[in-house]
């Protein structure tokens, strides 16, 4: 995960990044000109001007507490021990005088020793905060430092949100001594105006004192050289071709079908090896324009493909890493017929619904098979028969027969997208809409046809994380001062909501993706205005750029690996991967590789496939923004071994016969042991019953 080093910090910085379960970034030590990755305990490079960046870090400079660019009036505190230890002294590397107690002491120190103390910095402008650097108190006579702390963010200094690490409040590692600065990176770069450092623990024989620097970038209108305008079908094809011409080595244009009016559904693939699925590399997709008049998603996807191409050529390390480690598919217009209707009328005259539906009048977000009720009905029947509901399929649910009929009311574009979803082993996706500011997650369909009801999936915690990642990095959604779009205040839900809790949507693409394939998908409502004016597109790009990138990076969370045959070492397709206590399974792809999105934690993984004995392994998902490798091998059953040999017309070798016989004996012994234990248990139970009966008679 160590991506780059650059001379972005002054020589005086020594930065130990201590490994901490609450941080997404691992251990780095920079001390006396040497760099050590503590988890590996080896030197990387000797240099006195070194700054390490990891996955969640964007190259944002210090705000200027140390350089005095930040004025004293911009720094406040919850309390102050005395004037010389006021908030104005909480600046990185500030030095104290020889005498303690004068006006020029070496830190900010709180009057009270409790967890309600804080040091606050006003960045004046909206700023994308990326990290905090902390030091203890500079003093000859005292030893004071903060050992752990939280970070809080606000846009008005009244309403504060604590920086989250998944579903928990992030606890950042502070200082182990008073002089060595410690850098902590926020799990997700976050836009706000104010930032607070909230100490949680401090040196036991000292008090709450700290010096700090804040890393952040001022938010401004885009400087990216992108084609900010609305693109009709012809313009869209031209733009996509220009991107392909500019970056032929990492892009490929392909089509997945046609609309009712014959317009092609173009997809841009961006990968270091376009046209090929690479073993172990996850597949990601963005789909826009399902509703033709919700056009912002279309333009953002077109902007995104331009941006990725340009930044890859310029050597942007974050983008290079994303493209080399991920196969990205971008579908800018799922409903091109509807878009052309809205485009003809223009931004202000398209109305609320013109172009929403396909040419045939179909709402595409209700046009996928309703697999939810098929699963729920099967579970209810199992309960009625007192059967185990865990035996009911919870993934790869087949499409109902009525849906596959030629006369079924299914749009050609829906069929095309379903075929696309079945052909490529997608892991993560987002469906870009417009008309609101909120991110919704499955299930979209409610049970028993309730108009609205919270209807969580088995992966509810991870879906909430995905939705939060996008919403918290979106500059408009994360602004608490924004007004509501229409009549629903989604800010009280932190701008995310379960789809069913908003309104029921039977036959949604999100639910179908989750229940029919391995792919997790959310819906992003990008803006109050479904068809914003072209002049607003640069601002909308800046509002969503970080969200689009950081959401794609989530495809590298959880576990991944390859399911292989123990003897041949070949990958096993369609192996079922079950996470214990998670009622949603996935399957391995054609080459045996799989990806299971999970939050940090320890998991028991059970895998089985036709003709193989099941296998179990425990895998731990850490806080780092990369998947844990969890390869698993399966052993063929004796019957399968003999079946394959005989199918080839060969004679069973003696050594194979012996191995098969040994496996059968092993299985027989195991089953005999279980039977004997069961019989002994029954005998003891009968004996105990007789003894109790005899005692009652006596």
UniProtKB/TrEMBL annotation:
Keywords: Carboxypeptidase, Disulfide bond, Glycoprotein, Hydrolase, Metal-binding, Metalloprotease, Protease, Secreted, Signal, Zinc
Cofactor: Zn(2+)
InterPro entries linked to this entry: CarboxyPept-like_regulatory (IPR008969), CARBOXYPEPT_ZN_1 (IPR057246), CARBOXYPEPT_ZN_2 (IPR057247), FA58C (IPR000421), Galactose-bd-like_sf (IPR008979), Peptidase_M14 (IPR000834), Peptidase_M14_domain (IPR050753)
GO biological process: proteolysis
GO molecular function list: metallocarboxypeptidase activity; zinc ion binding
CDD domains: FA58C, M14_CPX_like, Peptidase_M14NE-CP-C_like
Name of this chain's protein: Carboxypeptidase X (M14 family), member 1a
UniProt-annotated stretches for the region Disordered: 676-698
Listed Basic residues bias regions: 684-698
All residue ranges annotated as the Peptidase M14 domain in the record: 229-555
